[in-house]
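2024-03-11 09:14:02 DEBUG pipeline.ingest accepted 1 chain
2024-03-11 09:14:02 DEBUG pipeline.ingest length=361
2024-03-11 09:14:03 DEBUG pipeline.predict start
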Amino acid sequence: MTDFIDTYRDIIVQIATPFCTGTGFYLKEWGVIVTNHHVVEGNRYVAIEGRRFAKQLATVQYLDPKYDLAFLSSPKDCPELPAVPLGADQLVRERDAVTAIGHPFGLKFSVKSGIISNAHEVMNGIPYLHIDAALNPGNSGGPLVDKEGRVLGVNTFILRDGDGMGFSLPVRFLLEALTAFKAAHSENTCRCPACLNVVSEETVERSFCSHCGQRVQLPASVEEYQPTGVLRIVESIIQRLGFHVALSRSGPHQWELKHGSAKIRLTYHAANGVISADALLCRLPQQNIKPLYEYLLRENYTLQWLTLSVYEQNIFLSLLVVEHYLTEDNGTAALQLLLQKADYYDNVLVEQYGATWSEEE
């Protein structure tokens, strides 16, 4: 298993949109990133990140609500990525060993092993692979792989209250979609939900399928996301500070900002109307901790807006703002201060007080 896991580590893609996070995987032979339709729905482009390429925007090139598939443009400015085989000619049986790969809950990489519980679980007219590997939110769009490293399916959904019970679209549906996508000779395509033909701007007339007259939506015709309310203010602040807003998004109501050695996670908590920004600075040393604690307390006495804290072994610098008091001006000033102080404090704590860099660093 180790050999193919290392290969997949290089081609697994983490996807973030304003609405959700998910997984994709790059197919070298086809030149696209495969994921689920529901992961990228409502977006013309999404943020992608991989082990061997930096975070960047990818264009949605194919939408398929029928089979819950989507294709994205391939990563740019990265070394050549390895190829993985599609197991379209493999006979799948119950109790076959499989591995689900993805980014559950926004984590960077996760491998879940299990077996095929049912090789032909029909739901909504589609025969899914029912697997007992514990899938979680964020796994959507990742590959289901056999013990030889062949792609058997695309992890698509779980049953609520089903203890992680997962369902994967068989790879033959993916192969058919890839073939039809390439035959369309267009990077702006979708599958008509009525006649199931793959159509492009050349075969769509005023948003209607030329084959059957069903209304369709090509990726390029998707209305671009426009934040409102407090989300608009937060993203305006991010832009004013010089960050690329779309690349800063890391999921619903979440953003990630990097400045020097500092990494800030920004979250809007809609339930209680609070915006939090947390910088993980470093980890406590194992010895001579008292001087470090005394330093944190002294600094907290003088800090405006910000708070230094310790949780378990981690040292944080945090900012909390109630949405009713948030403006673009005071939010920009506060977040800029957090970025500057985080970049300053982590160095001081490591160099002068013996703290250690966190694993994320």
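2024-03-11 09:14:41 DEBUG pipeline.report The CA atoms of residues 68 and 279 lie 36 Å apart.
2024-03-11 09:14:41 DEBUG pipeline.predict end
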